[in-house]
């Protein structure tokens, strides 16, 4: 990914506290599933049960509730972020423009149309759609990035605030990482809870965050095909998430496609949970023994929006 560096404010713990007031007033806490049924002791934070099927609704809602109402809002998305923005637009009663590429998922385009937001089709890829959305924002609108935004990051961090009320003692929280909005938010939350560790998990086919953390800045990496497509891709140049992950996340690990598939099957067959590939990577890392967990092991199941044919194929082994 290339382009000019946008000036994005780095969120603080004060932003997290403000986001908690917003989110706790609109969304009930998601369940913490601790029914191990004889398997490994992995607690599941079920963000897959959010109204849109993904944790992305948290950051979207916080952004729309916080950006001044007289400022137009625009975003680009090919999936869960756009659905979260559409849901938040309905909840807050404010207009939002969502730009999607012409080859975006027909099912998700249909869902966005049904939500009543201003839907714009442009380009043949997410990069094309994002570039157009950023151009629209130059006319005075606020661009809500799916990860490189202080309100989005703070909104995602409210998962940690819910865990504060659900778990005592030492805790190791695992989440998937692509652009790093969730990992950065949980990392900031972790800085307020000394007995917590945060581990971010990437698919081997897309390691943009670990490459950026090693280099100290965004670097473009080759991205392969992965079941965890929700966290695949390169990172916006200058994204504030890179330094937040570097400073506040305890570890970055990778998982293979085989391990991701095994995690999706484990969740469905053993825990009764439907998860998309990106929602299962934390579980994959724990099942593969790649994390030295301290205290309660919590994997954030970030989403359930997996195509039925894909799920059928994965479950068939």
TrEMBL record:
> tRNA-binding as a keyword?
no
Sorted alphabetically, the keyword list is: Lyase, Pyridoxal phosphate
Tell me one GO biological process term.
L-threonine catabolic process
* CC cofactor: pyridoxal 5'-phosphate
User: Which InterPro entries does the protein's record reference?
Assistant: Ser/Thr_Dehydratase (IPR050147), TrpB-like_PALP (IPR001926), TrpB-like_PALP_sf (IPR036052)
The name of this protein is Pyridoxal-phosphate dependent enzyme
Which species is this record about? Amycolatopsis pithecellobii
**Where does the Tryptophan synthase beta chain-like PALP domain lie?**
24-303
Give TM regions: none
């Amino acid at each position: 990914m290339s382009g000019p560096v946008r000036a994005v404010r780095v969120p603080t713990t004060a932003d997290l506290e403000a986001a908690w007031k917003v989110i706790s007033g609109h969304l009930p806490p998601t369940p913490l599933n601790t029914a191990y049924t004889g398997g490994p002791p992995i607690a599941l934070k079920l963000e897959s049960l959010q109204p849109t099927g993904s944790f992305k609704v948290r950051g979207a809602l916080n952004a729309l509730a916080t950006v001044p109402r007289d400022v137009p809002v625009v975003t680009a998305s090919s999936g869960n972020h756009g659905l979260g923005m559409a849901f938040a637009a309905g909840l807050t009663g404010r207009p939002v423009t969502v730009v999607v590429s012409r080859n975006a998922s027909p099912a998700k385009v249909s869902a966005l149309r049904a939500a009543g937001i201003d839907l714009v089709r442009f380009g043949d890829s997410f990069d094309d759609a994002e570039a157009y959305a950023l151009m629209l924002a130059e006319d005075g609108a606020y661009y809500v990035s799916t990860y490189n935004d202080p309100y989005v990051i703070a909104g995602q961090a409210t998962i940690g605030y819910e865990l504060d009320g659900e778990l005592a003692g030492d805790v190791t929280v695992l989440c998937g990482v692509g652009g790093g909005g969730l990992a950065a938010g949980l990392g900031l939350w972790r800085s307020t809870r000394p007995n917590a560790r945060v581990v971010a998990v990437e698919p081997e086919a897309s390691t943009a965050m670990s490459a950026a953390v090693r280099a100290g800045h965004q670097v473009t990496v080759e991205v392969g095909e992965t079941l965890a497509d929700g966290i695949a891709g390169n990172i916006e140049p200058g994204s504030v998430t890179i330094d937040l992950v570097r400073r506040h996340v305890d570890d970055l690990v990778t998982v293979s496609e085989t391990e991701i598939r095994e995690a999706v099957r484990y969740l469905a067959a053993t825990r009764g949970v439907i998860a998309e590939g990106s929602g299962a990577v934390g579980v994959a890392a724990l099942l593969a023994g790649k994390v030295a967990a301290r205290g309660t092991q919590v994997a954030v199941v970030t989403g359930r929006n997996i195509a039925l044919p894909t799920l059928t194929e994965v479950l068939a082994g």
